[in-house]
Design brief:
Pathway: Amino-acid biosynthesis; L-histidine biosynthesis; L-histidine from 5-phospho-alpha-D-ribose 1-diphosphate: step 6/9. This is Imidazoleglycerol-phosphate dehydratase. Pfam families: IGPD (PF00475). It is found in: Cytoplasm. Keywords: Amino-acid biosynthesis, Cytoplasm, Histidine biosynthesis, Lyase. The protein is of the alpha+beta class. It has a single domain, classed as Ribosomal Protein S5, domain 2, CATH 3.30.230.40. Helices cover about 35% and strands about 30% of the residues. The protein contains 4 helices and 10 strands, in the order βββαβαβββββαβα. Strands 1-2-4-3 form a 4-stranded mixed sheet, with helices on one face. A 4-stranded mixed sheet has the order 5-6-10-7, with helices on one face. α2 packs parallel to α3.
Length: about 200
């Protein structure tokens, strides 16, 4: 019998630096609602939601008067935790996903495994310090926070490219499509592991 349960999670994380409320629906309508307070990150998360087919709602406040680090990292943490909660025991999912995303002169590849063992390889170089008002190095930190807290093995690499905005867009688009493949239901009764558990 096919599992038709809604896969979703609603979480809130409050620290002295940030306050983040996030709702994720895995089998959603491809929409991003709310704001992170960082225009560039809102743009990237819109791409992530649209290309992954997720419904993603975020309301975040943080110490942006300092820089974007705490806000970006903490949103990555909460998003990762939401995926982990929404996937539950991971019965019936494809587990693995991969996608190549071309963006004009840029090509990015993402490969993901919701293995339960967090690991990140991020091979993308930015040649500018900022993307909008967000520090370019925070793309890596966001990816790392997501991988650790969703407990996935995530490899993202830019095979070639020169435009920094294109690189970032291709990262989030390829990542979204790879995640979409990995969380797709393929068997409602089994976990795709010889151990029987992920």
């Amino acid at each position: 019998m096919e599992d038709t349960a809604v896969r979703q999670a609603s979480l809130r994380r409050t620290t002295k630096e940030t306050d983040i409320a996030l709702t994720l629906i895995l089998d959603g309508d491809g929409s991003f609602i709310g704001t992170t307070g960082i225009g560039f990150l809102d743009h990237m998360l819109t791409l992530f939601a649209v290309h992954g087919g997720f419904t993603l709602q975020i309301e975040a406040t943080g110490d942006l008067d300092v820089d974007t680090h705490h806000t970006v990292e903490d949103i990555g943490i909460v998003l990762g935790e939401a995926f982990k909660e929404a996937l539950g025991d991971k019965k019936g999912i494809a587990r693995y996903g991969h996608f190549y995303c071309p963006m004009d002169e840029t090509l990015v590849r993402t490969v993901i495994d919701f293995s339960g063992r967090p690991y990140t390889v991020f091979d993308v170089e930015f040649t500018v310090p900022y993307l909008g008002t967000m520090e370019a190095e925070m793309v890596r930190e966001f990816v790392y926070a997501f991988a650790v807290h969703s407990a996935c093995n995530l490899h993202i690499g830019c095979l070639y490219g020169t435009n920094n905005h294109h690189k970032a867009e291709a990262v989030f688009k390829s990542w979204a499509h790879a995640v979409r493949q990995a969380v797709t239901r393929v068997n409602s009764t089994a976990v795709l592991s010889s151990k029987g558990v992920l």
